[in-house]
Structure formats: structure tokens, C-alpha cells
Design goal:
Elements: H1 2-24, H2 38-57, H3 93-97
């Protein structure tokens, strides 16, 4: 959860600094990764808003990674990180994940 918290908080910050315009473009303006139709674009917008709403709710000083000099309530170190990776590893679980 600490890794997810960090990821969506970073997404929220990046979204407010210009990424919102990417989903606001018309279908023929995108140079790559174009949406097939307006339904797909609307789905992307709504799904992104759900993630951003979660980021907005995870505020107010409460965190999954509280550190006040002790170890209580602290995520493991090194801090967990979520990252996107292309499929194709030798791990058979990767095929079932999607």
C-alpha cells in the first residue's frame, strides 16, 4: 500500500501539471496511442478520475508510511516501488496476471 500511495500521489501531482490536457484532445490530435473512439476516450477519462479521487482521499497527514523516528507504522526498507514492466519474463505467473 505504501508503494501504491506513492505512485498515485505522484500521478496526482503530474496530472495537475499538464497531463490532463492529453485526455482532453480530440481523437485525431493524438500523435500516438490514439483512442479508437470517443467511448474509449471517455472510459480512460473516467478511470483516471477514479484513481485521482483515491489520491485526493489519501491526504490529511495519514499515510501508509508514517515515520516519526521509530519503526511503528513504517513500510519496509528499502521502500517498496510499483513499476510497469513489459510482459515477456520467464515467470509463468506474468501471463496469468493480466
Amino acid at each position: 500500500m505504501a508503494g501504491l500511495e506513492l505512485l498515485i500521489k505522484r500521478m496526482r501531482k503530474a496530472w495537475g501539471s499538464g497531463y490532463a490536457g492529453l485526455l482532453a484532445r480530440s481523437l485525431d490530435e493524438a500523435p500516438s496511442y490514439k483512442f479508437r473512439n470517443s467511448d474509449q476516450q471517455d472510459f480512460a477519462r473516467k478511470a483516471t478520475e477514479c484513481v485521482l479521487d483515491a489520491a485526493d482521499k489519501w491526504t490529511g497527514g495519514v499515510t501508509f508510511d508514517r515515520y516519526d523516528g521509530g519503526t511503528a507504522g513504517r513500510s519496509p526498507r528499502p521502500k517498496p516501488v510499483l513499476r510497469m514492466m513489459p510482459p515477456g519474463s520467464n515467470d509463468p505467473r506474468a501471463e496469468r496476471a493480466g
